[in-house]
Amino acid sequence: MTPLEIIRRAQGSRVVDEDGRSVTLELLPPLSAEEFAHLEGMIPCRLPAEVRELLSFSRGFANGPWAGADFSGLTHEQSFGMEEVFPCAIPIAADGCGNFWVVDVTSRSAGWGPIFYACHDPPVIVFQTDDLSRFMEEFLQSGNTPQQGGLHEVHEKHAFRIWSENPGVLNHEAAIQSSDRELKSFAETLDGSFQFIDLRNAKTGDGFSWGRYGPRTVVRRHGETLLFACQKGPEKKSLLSRLFGR
User: Is the pTM of this model over 0.90?
Assistant: First the structure.
């Protein structure tokens, strides 16, 4: 189903909101001509046809799980940064704790995807889906079966697993010796203090710890690809080393 078909089907249905109450799902109004112009000025590509079709009918959900969703990104436009990770991020939903699901828009985007969960506690990025329709279905599932579904899995399970396990990380030596030309090229622009994460073929739950070495961790992205690198912090000296200046 298209995003427009999904939102039309969902309008007026009963869902459970973020406070556990059964409510009638309400829609936000469509974008005005001025809002369309503003959105188009924000993104580095043409507004995808299915997104324009959706936003001409409604910009999203006014209530329901996760306190609603605005697929234009305008509601949370001033609330999300992280330009070093997502140069053009469209924040379409929030978890109420300062974390967002964002669309990563590039000059090559033909749709509203991929979509990531960007979290600050723990400081991780998690791949959700590459498709807006699937995100909308998972959003609605959160309102039909609370504490279940794709969004809940990413929010409650995968974010903490990534922080705990730090999976899929390559050191600089492995990246620079890779037969993957794009990864090798990226590694050649950085020094040995960087670790690399490849999300070009990500599946739900894949991601990386953008703040693993503290809130000032340096993060780099290889152009518009889903190749990322995080700079390791300096090794902490032992107490004896600090005492004897070693």
Answer: yes
* Structural contact between residues 80 and 99, judged by C-beta atoms closer than 8 angstroms: no
Contact 101, 90 (CB under 8 A): no
Q: How far apart are CA 152 and CA 65, in angstroms?
A: 11
Q: Which residue has the tokens 């669309």?
A: 103
Which of helix, strand or coil describes residue 76? coil
Query: pLDDT higher for 245 or 67?
Result: 67
The answer to whether the CB of 69 falls within 8 A of the CB of 92 is: yes
> Do residues 100 and 80 make contact, with C-beta atoms less than 8 angstroms apart?
yes
Which residue ranges make up each domain of the chain?
3-165, 172-231
Q: 60-61 and 115-120 as β-strands: parallel, antiparallel, unpaired?
A: unpaired
Rounded to whole angstroms, the Cα distance separating 219 from 226 reads 13
Domain range 3-165, CATH architecture: 3-Layer(aba) Sandwich (3.40)
Q: Measured between alpha carbons, how far is 237 from 230 in angstroms, rounded to an integer?
A: 21
Give the pLDDT score at 219: 98
Instruction: Assess contact for 100 and 76: CB atoms under 8 A.
Output: yes
- State the pLDDT confidence band at 236, using cuts at 50, 70 and 90: low
